[in-house]
Amino acid sequence: MTSTELVEFNGQVVVISGAATGIGKASAQLIASRGAKVIALDFNKSALNDLATELKLAPNQVHTCDISDQNQINTTISAILKDHGTIDALINTAGIVGPSNTPAIDVKWADFEKVLQVNLYGAIWLTQAVIPAMKDKKYGRIVHLASIAGKEGNPGLSPYNTSKAGMIGFVKGVAKEVAPDGIIINSLAPAVISTPMNANTSDETLKYMISRIPMGRVGQPEEVAEIVAFMASKACSFTTGFTFDASGGRATY
Questions:
Q1: Active-site annotation holder among 139, 160, 208, 253
Q2: SS3 of 13, please?
Q3: Per residue in 8-29, pLDDT tens?
Q4: Does the predicted model carry a pTM greater than 0.90?
Q5: Which of 92, 139, 224, 232 is the most exposed place for a label (fewest CB within 10 A)?
Q6: Segments making up each domain of the chain, as ranges
Q7: Tell me: the pLDDT tens digits for 79-93?
């Protein structure tokens, strides 16, 4: 197989959660252009419909799904497997920031728990849902969008920091479990990226995050999508349990 074929997705079914906006949308656009049959999941129905029109997705390639609900995840993944027969790669980019510029002692538990449900529990449930089918075919790629906040922590973002650190730990352990089955799972830790998810992040928090980036700017979804596409491809064949970076030089490990 040539190096070009390794990064292409011809004949592959790639499920992308959080596909309607931001990094998920950029990843869907790029991976579709490389031949994948993209299955788009998102909670934002109108933005999902716009993506479906742009990428000419069939009705069974589009699913409205709230990943903070395990039943919705299981129902959606079952429907995808029934309709398409396989899932070659899962890319999970769905996430929320939650309370920002808020000291940990002031965060209401309901708000803390909601961030965990979306960012951490959702990642766990999606992984649990796709692994059996991947095991059956002895092949799979799983990509979870973590954050530099999960490595270094950002002040005033304790729910988000916790959810992403938990995701990184989850990925490390699962990778060792499924490596013998031909399944590769990694996470990616971007610094702040220009996406709708950051629209409600306080200016003070954004200024802090940008000040920590040696390149002095936010990243763009398209820059992150290039790494996501590699992680989801056959070319990513000897790296698992790892946290890739897209941090403009901020990451130190």
A1: 160
A2: strand
A3: 999 999 999 999 999 999 999 9
A4: yes
A5: 139
A6: 3-245
A7: 999 999 999 999 999
